[in-house]
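Reader question, answered in our methods column.
A reader sent in the components of a multi-part assembly and asked whether the whole thing could be modeled at once rather than chain by chain. We filled in our standard form and ran it. Here is what they sent:
COMPLEX SIZE: three components
ENTRIES:
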Amino acid sequence: MTTEVPVTFLGRVRRDRALGIVAPINAGARLINGRRIEEAAGYPQMESMRDRTRAIRLDALGRLDELLARFAGRVEAGGGHVYFAATGDEAADYIRALASREGVSTIVKSKSMVTEEIELNEALEHDGLETVETDLGEFIIQLAGEKPSHIIAPVLHKTRQQIGALFAERLDVPYTDDPTELNAIARTHLREIFLAADMGISGCNMAIADTGSIVLVTNEGNGRLTTTAPRIHVVVMGMERIVESMPDAATVLEVLARSATGQRLSVYTNVITGPRRPADPDGPEQLHVVILDNGRSQTLAGSEAEILACIRCGACLNVCPVYREVGGHAYGFTYSGPIGAVLTPSLQGLDTWHELPYASTLCGACEDVCPVRIQIPQMLLSLRARSAEEGNLPGWLRRGIRIYARAATRPARFRRLLKAGGLAGRVLAKEGWIEKAPSHGAAWTGARDLPQPATRSFHQRWKEQNRGT
Amino acid sequence: MERDAFLARVREASRSAVLPAVIKEDAAAPTHEGDLAELFVERLEDTDGVAHRVRADEVVATLADIAGQYDADRFLAWTDDQMPVRGVAAGLIARGLRPHPGEVPASPADRMRHQGEYRDLRLGITGADAGLAESGSIVLTHGHGRPRMASLIPLVHVALLPVSRLEWSLSTWSSAHGGEVDSTTNLVIITGPSRTGDIEMQLNLGVHGPKHLHVVLVDD
Amino acid sequence: MATQLFVTCLVDAFYPEVGEATVAVLERAGDTVAFPVDQTCCGQPAFNVGMRDEARAMAVHTLSVLDATEGPIVVPSGSCADMIVHHYADLFEDDPESAGRAARVAGRVRELTQYLVDDKGRSDLGTACDGCTATYHPSCHGLRNLGIRAQPEALLDATPGMTRVDLPDAENCCGFGGLFAVEMPDVSVAMMETKIANIEKSGADMLVGVDVSCLMHLAGGLHRRGSPIRVRHIAQILAGAPDDD
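And here is the structure of the entire assembly that came back:
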């Protein structure tokens, strides 16, 4: 059964609020946010580390081609392969060709947002390749045929009962909703698959240019298993996810887990350099790094370049008052919350995604908590300006603002407008309040009263008191 | 896309990028006062790891105790020459435990069989190249005689860490050793046992990696 | 030298009594208040939806009115002050003369509580509010972009007879967001309801803020549910008009 996906942001918001999936996301986001705050309170270097993280990431973006060239050279010198993919299709085609050449039939995946961005699993399954997500949350999402609702915590929207029913149905196990038992079921089930898989695909939290290394960060251990057990390891990497050196990576790592979950470091921080060497007792025989553009060079060239400095911690989601009320699916694409509101239209175009920059009150909480100090509200404003220029604003709004602006540049006309508002108020209001405003005002009065516009504006009162200028 | 064309496009984009000017300075090394070992133990326990502190001649007995605690009759370990304390495997064998070979066979069929035998492995024993007191982490590098699976596949991972290898933080360790991360295929910084909060935000240990992490601090 | 009042369009149209209270408290602090009568709107509504040409036109007008005056420019709104201080520069990237004028004017613009507490060192201007239990909502633009938090709290704490109680999750946005309130009504209302629940949890019988934009939205929600909680701009507390409804 296919369900119609609402095409508007508000349509998706209404759907998800009605489904009841937003409330647990709200609670989860607040909980994780609380942990971030608690850990930050005990970490006196946080502010200086944020400053340094920002400098590291922006410096890297300013020299991106140089760092990528250095990185690729080091990977190849160490026996790995590097493929530069301009688009998601190019990336998928490379991996499919590799799998075919190497007789791969089972693939395990460690959580990777960039592979979701390019819909890699769908492309691989098209070739009959069994592609199994191994991060517990992503595994659940995959079984359910859904999309994640949060960048770090993919199944915030699901209850234990729903997960229990899902496992019982899809894994043919007795029903349980105890998280410890569900965890054990997943561990056993996935372990078999890990040990039998031919290829492991991971993302890349950070590439290190100087050493040709990949930094991969997980809490569960699936990242380690994915990149150790199978004989081929494929890394898919957004081209902007790079730093120059290990000391630079260390700075980023020390703010990443703290901002994401309130941990000092994630459980497993892997620094992977090349395929297995002759003396290694285990590890993959082949390493392939696929470096992806997919709209990033366009973003880098534009006024939202700074968004590419993101280290994918999710702190902005957890603090965003809009995200907490709409959840991740409303954003319609891989990246949600404040990061998604900028990145998605920037990478994929405002034509489809022009609503997202408006899914914000510009409150600035995101910028406040971002470990890279990314100026998200500023970029939302510049996206809105581009969107308005491209003609995406509703006609009533455009006309309304034009009328208002014409009055606001002509003082006498403005004062007449204030008077007209006062008169309209007298007609529409009862005891100082308007309960049902006409036309688009109904969007206000649906759930709120509107105060009656003053019968005598401040301008008028000042004039009456004969106070001059 | 051709590498040169790809990088040329990136270079051009960087040129017109609207990026705030930044100066990337070297991090000032944070000073730390106090006992590193004490802090390490505190921070390790924060992550649900278990700390032991013993003399070198007590290591085997401690490992045997841990093995008994988890009903482990087999163990997967780094080879003797890679351990910070010698004679560990021999000592455990003398106490009736059986070693699991760490070397993965070359042929696919043998590899599958070997990996299948990991199934009920309860105990993995490794050394550690460094400890990071601030986060309660251990740093492991891999290579000859150091199977990654020893710290990944078993129910319990025990790491032997000489006290002299303790450092303050990931940043201080990286300042000293960061340039050498490529001397190993795989370096891992382990901070506690495997965990997830994916199901209703409830903490669960031992998702894919070990459920129990013990660090035996060895006085040296 | 007179203090120039930039009263803001929402105060002008919906809450002129807040403007009057602002004048009264500035006079009590010893200032002579001038009101450049040709002022209209800073342009924020157009700017926030992305209509920069219209916003620019309003900014040019506002700058011409304010630049013809001297002295501090006091604004009873964090978001309007923020617009002039931080965003006029965005509108004049290609117009150095206007950019210069914007910088000059921005240097004189102060939100009301910043002006009273930080510039004039006066946190004692509160008129008695016997038995009032108030909670303060720190509007986002003022809070994050201008650092306004301690000043209104100090003013409330020094108001005789007033007890200030903490607002749980105070820094969460109320959901107004300008035209967001009517463009994304479901989300705006959900955020409003969360804020109102926190206001009720605080135990306050009065909500105080520095921005009538937020206050209008919250007052509308409180009134719709028949809440007895009174909503006041800080100027009204300072000028002593707590019963003005």
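What stands out: The radius of gyration of chain B is 21 Å. Chain B touches chain A through 89 residues (CB under 8 Å).
Send us your own complexes using the same form.
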